[in-house]
Amino acid sequence: MAITKASKQKNKKNMAGVTKDSLFKKSPAYLYILPWVLGFLMFQLYPFIASFIYSFTDFSILKPMTFVGLNNYIKMFTADRLFWPSLKATFLYVLIAVPGKLIFALFIALVLNMKLKFINFFRTVYYLPSILGGSVAISILWRFLFSRQGTVNVLLKTLGLPSADWLGSPNLALGTMGLLVVWQFGSSMVLFLAGLKNIPTELYEAARVDGAGKTRSFFKITLPLLSPIIFFNLIMQTINAFKEFNAPYLITQGGPLNSTYLYGMMLYENAFSFLKMGYASAQSWVLFIIIMLFTALTFKSSPYWTFYDDGGDF
């Protein structure tokens, strides 16, 4: 019995020593991830929870916070004259910008997948707009290019074509602003190009033997095998389009006639121009729910149009 008790105590000491040693060995790993954990807690999780709480309050920097329940949400859907026009403009913007960007990115990826001279140089050049496109300077340049006396209209007049009020017409302003997003196709293009590189050439050779042309091969081979990348790009680019702020704020200031007054700009003005932090928090949660619903519907539909090599899905 004495030997058994002694052995048990010895085993406990050994286990304690092993545990301390393992924790000591892992401590550098915890130190490495500590900055990310602190950043996540301070700049993501806390604002996420705080905004949800603020959405039920009349919170402003200049006065004490008071609880108002669902009043912010009721006001948003029933009394805010800018809410529905802004939401409509945002959905139209998403429908213009996202398909245009994905189609153009896929087209450029197909071109850059060809065996051409100096192809690496062209790939670098075509990626540059994505690096520069979101900057303030490029947005201001876009406003200059499409103004009444801008470069685009001057070029049209030189060619004998009629000019247009690209940013002053409610029918043209939103589409013109969407072109800026289409121009930033580089990130989507790189993903499409990587996907094209991974498609086995044997499939195209077999299709040629069976008499399939380039168009049929594109729809029967290229698109199905690129569908996972299309799925990923569709979700990411739609989320970015719903959150768009720079373009309407810097190019059109929401005009003309609020045709480009996107949701992100409305949210920003309520929060930082009118200091309605509680109301802006409620608006941000409505946007979050819209994005979540779109993402859920896209995932739900993916088994019907997304093809995976292993036959699986998410």
In short:
The chain has 314 residues and is mainly alpha-helical. It has 13 helices and no strands. It has 2 domains: 54 residues; 231 residues, MetI-like fold, CATH 1.10.3720.10.
Which labels suit this protein?
74% helix; 314 residues; 2 domains; MetI-like fold; single chain
User: What profile does the largest beta sheet have?
Assistant: none
Mean pLDDT: 85
Number of contiguous helices: 13
Along the chain, the helix and strand elements come as HHHHHHHHHHHHH
What ranges have pLDDT less than 50 throughout 5 or more consecutive residues? 12-18
At CATH level 2, the architecture of the largest domain is Orthogonal Bundle
How many strand units?
A: 0
- Gyration radius (Cα, Å) is 27 Å
Highest-level CATH class of the largest domain: Mainly Alpha
N-to-C span: 57 Å
Detail the topology: elements first, then pairings.
Layout: H1 2-54, H2 71-78, H3 83-112, H4 119-132, H5 136-145, H6 151-158, H7 173-183, H8 186-197, H9 201-209, H10 214-242, H11 246-252, H12 263-273, H13 277-305
Helix pairs in contact: 1-13, 3-7, 3-8, 3-10, 4-8, 5-11, 8-10, 10-13, 12-13
